[in-house]
Amino acid sequence: MRKRLIPVLLVDDRRRLVKTVRFGDRTYVGDPFNVVRLFNEKEVDEICVLDIDATPHDRGPNFGFMRELSSECFMPLAYGGGITKVSECEQLNRLGVEKFVLGTSAFDETLVRAVSRDFGSQAVVACVDVVRKGSALRCVTRSASYDTGQEPMELCKRLQDLGVGEIILQSVDRDGMRGGFDLELIHRVAIHLSIPVVALGGAADAPDLVQALSAGASAAASGSAFVFIGALRAVLVTYPSPERIATLLNEAP
Predict the structure, then answer these.
(1) Dihedral, CA of residue 151, residue 152, residue 158 and residue 162, to nearest 10
(2) What are the two backbone dihedrals, phi and then psi, of residue 200, each rounded to the nearest 5 degrees?
(3) pLDDT value of residue 231
(4) Count of beta carbons in the 10 Å neighbourhood of residue 216
(5) Phi and psi at residue 249, in whole multiples of 5°?
(6) CB of 227 within 8 A of CB of 39?
(7) Which of 120, 47, 114 is nearest to 80 (CA)?
(8) pLDDT < 70: residue spans in the chain
(9) Which residues pair with 8 in a beta bridge?
């Protein structure tokens, strides 16, 4: 399977593009429509849009916003945030969304099976958020406010068995820190799964993305690596050229 690099765009209730640090402090990045247009020009592999306020505020997807955004998006589009019903996936699919990212809803086995049945496992993505507690790894939900008590490998294998076609494995501790991925976590999970693992949380630049792929991820995802530059986190939307991507991927075993 071809390795991929995936920009992740976090949007809030005000339809703004933001970047978080450990799921907390937010930095305004810009207008999501302008950023999507820039990524169109850069021939991005695919893009993932996550509405980070939907589940904490107990609301569903903002269909009006996604209708407008998808009309500007000329690459494969994944969406997550507030999905709790198959009918919501149906409406998102009509708007142009190809993959549905389930976070808290990934614990709803009935929903996972139904979406996988109706759209195919390739359309079902589970976002597994992980925190380190001493030497232990725990999966959390609802913006890391709830500890599920489950270990990442246990949960990821169960999700795979339920019909999930892809796992976004996100390190909460490294979110927005730009200090590199949790390579041990990526390797530990990826070697035991037959479905793609997308690494998320910690990337600052292209070498970090390559390290995640080398650790076993099928794709490396990031917000910071594609919208920030330098230690001062100046906003600059960027994405490697096809030639640079080829070079980077050749460096990943």
Answers:
(1) 140
(2) -145, 135
(3) 63
(4) 19
(5) -70, -30
(6) no
(7) 47
(8) 230-234, 253
(9) 48
**CA-angle at 175, arms to 222 and 24, nearest 5°:** 125
Rounded to two decimals, the pTM is 0.94
Cα gap 171→185, rounded to integer Å: 8
- Per-residue tokens: 231: 């230690």
Query: For 175-212, b where at least 16 C-beta lie within 10 A, e where not — what string?
Result: bbebebbbbebbbbbbeebebbbbbbbbbbbbebbbbb
Pairing of strands 166-171, 197-200: parallel
Q: Residue 64 burial (CB < 10 Å; 0-12/13-18/19+)? A: exposed
Catalytic annotation on 129?
yes
Q: Are 199 and 217 in contact (CB under 8 A)?
A: yes
Which residue out of 129, 175, 182, 208 is catalytically annotated?
129
**SS3 string of 162-180?**
HCCCEEEEEECCCCCCCCC
